[in-house]
Amino acid sequence: MRAVLMAGGSGTRLRPLTCDLPKPMVSILNRPIAEHIINLLKDNGITEVIATLHYLPDIMRDYFQDGSDFGVQMTYAVEEDQPLGTSGCVKNIAELLDETFLVISGDSLTDFDLRSAIAFHKAKRSKATLILTRVPNPLEFGVVITDSQQRICRFLEKPSTSEIFSDTVNTGAYILEPEVLDYLPINEESDFSKDLFPLLLQRGEPMYGYIAEGYWCDVGNLDTYRQAQYDGLDGKVHLQIPYEEKNPGQWIGQNTYIDPSAKIERPVLIGSNCRIGPRVHIEAGTVLGDNITVGADADLKRPIIANGAIIGEEAHLRACVISRGTRVDRRSHILEGAVVGSLSTVGEEAQISPGVRVWPSKKIESGAILNINLIWGTMAQRNLFGQQGVSGLANIDITPEFTVKLGAAYGSTLKPGSMITVSRDQRPISRMVSRSLIAGLMSTGVHIQNLESTAIPVARTVIPTLSVSGGIHVRLHPDRPDYILIEFFDKQGINISKAKEKKIEGTYFKEDIRRMPIADIGTMTYASQVLDLYSRCFERQLNVAAVQNSRAKVVIDYVYAVTGAILPRLLAKFGCDAVVLNASLSQTAVSNEERENLLIQLGHVVEAVRANFGVQVSANGEQLILVDEAGLPIRGETLTALMVNMMMTAHPRSSVVVPVQTSSAVEKIARRHDGRVIRTKASPTALMEAARANHNVVLGGSGEMGFIFPSLHPGFDAMFCIAKLIEMLTIQERSLAQIRAELPKVCHKNYTMRCPWTVKGALMRHLVETHTPENLELIDGVKIVNRQNDSWILILPDAGEPLVHLYANSDDRDWVDRVLLEYRQRVQGFIDQEEGVDLLQLG
């Protein structure tokens, strides 16, 4: 007798286990479900098996091959183009089925007596016999009703509560005569329960139900998957367990070492080639695959762990599922019902909350608390906030459901009845995200002043005038056109403090979110005259007469952003001759390569129209690149030095604020003008806070981040910077090329290296310990300074990526090249050493 093993299912409800496995190849007690079924068939005298495949067919074929290693003869039928359904795939192989045959599902676990079912079928001379079983709750199954002779008289597919007339359900196993397949169409999708069996019932064909005794479990979801494992260990289902039973209820594979101090409760299954460390506690119900390492003091309470996993020291696993090749680092907690997909990494002291699913090849950062499924992104971070707000892949990391919760978390940190502003750039994705944030905020009783689409400088300027508690701005990330950036402002329009960020993160991860009654839900209004308000502030901080009399010709490339709808109106008030490029609003982002091409075009236009200078505005009005009258770009460190030079020429004995990695050219310029340089951490928030807190600051920022004019507002503002440039060039009667030629000659180079998160802290400590304190500056990262000649090397960990940046600065180019190479080698050597230690500990 032949059996048809239906093994084409993709098992969507079992994901992430089935992301890279067909459902019948998911493991129960360290062997695929399909192998348990084949053992059942063999035990009942059925040794010819035809497997119908569709989803990832090669995995099953490679595992079973011709079946000889499993005591059966295996052949395969693959549905190449489209799934044909349960009966359609059997009709597709009708020529192989010329006598009574058995059909059995590839995703159910059972120990039914199939010989008795076959004997029943033959005794009744049935055309189709359905193997049935009794279940306590038949709501999720197809109910089959039989008469006193066990002839089938009615089918109910997943009945409602009022329709439950029987507790006998269809198990997906059938004994059929070949002629019933004549009722099915060729190469069309059809189903046994929905199509064939009702038709046979209608035609009066003899069809019976055999009520089988024994265990049956439809492994249809992750809860039943875990339960099937526990049932197998408890002996509720008869399965062939592939390991020696060392003691009653304790199956252990070959070449497995268990430390004498480990506590192992029964029943338990531990595969071959495993290493169980000192003082490990393994609770009854735990299933460990082959080649698993469990570190010292780990606590395993009924997890299911697949082959090749590494469990770190003091890890706590609770009734969860860990897929093959996954690494769970020390002191991590993975709680009840959580599932971690194959080849993932769970960092030290991370926590995965109950029921959370992690798709394959993901990384959970050290210390992260994951309480939502991780499907599309690559990493779950321990922090929501990075160097600059909350950022992530648009509509993958930053989704509507994420931002609703983020908005609610932020709102829960504010008093009920508070009001904040919400603004954005012009892109549809930013509109979607801002509306989701608004919904979350309103749910916590926070009121909204919606500024809609506007530039960030405008939003920052109006916040202090509206008596609001803060603001949010949503835009495409200035450096990543596929990323969204969400920034949070305080009531002065400055980015919120780290303490406030931590408070929002704590509320988000703990889900300590305030819910308001209907009467107290927040409201939304639209702010009016926002641009007029900004325009008045803009005008008060400018020497309007100098700008009006400048006769300057400027070419401005707006790169299709919202600033193109704002700045031309402002400059027109002052009679500026501005040639406008790319001012129309675009709904799609411009790539970095396209922006560089536009910069080249801008240089050509500046030359052609003989303009005084050109400007490319980016980052929704925060950043800019200059082009001098010869069409040559001025950016980065040169742009920083140029702006410091111009502002200190206009305001001698003033102060400027720059990030820690800025070239020492700014100090040389400050000395010329009896000025002061204040260096801060390399974050936008630190620059804004320092520019506001220190006396007599006329400029803050850098060519990379943008420039702050504290007298106007506390944020970066490229639009005001353009007007201020026109003013200063007019008053100082100089060109950009002349100013550039006056700048101090300093060699400043940087290099970026990969550095794992777990190594960053140790690297900084190592650098501090191996250098004398008088040569160190620890504003941000570690700066090693030569006091005699302004030479220094800065090692600065990246705030948002597993990177470390090296900056070398000196008047001596050879010194810069030599020191940069030396510290590259030192840092890399330390990283290699630390990772080597980690590997030894894991081994």
TrEMBL record:
Claim: Phosphoprotein is one of the keywords in the record: yes
Every Nucleotidyl transferase domain range: 3-231
Residue stretches making up the Alpha-D-phosphohexomutase alpha/beta/alpha domain: 383-512, 534-631, 636-745
Keyword match Transferase: yes
Superkingdom per UniProt: Bacteria
Protein family: Belongs to the transferase hexapeptide repeat family.
Protein name: Mannose-1-phosphate guanyltransferase
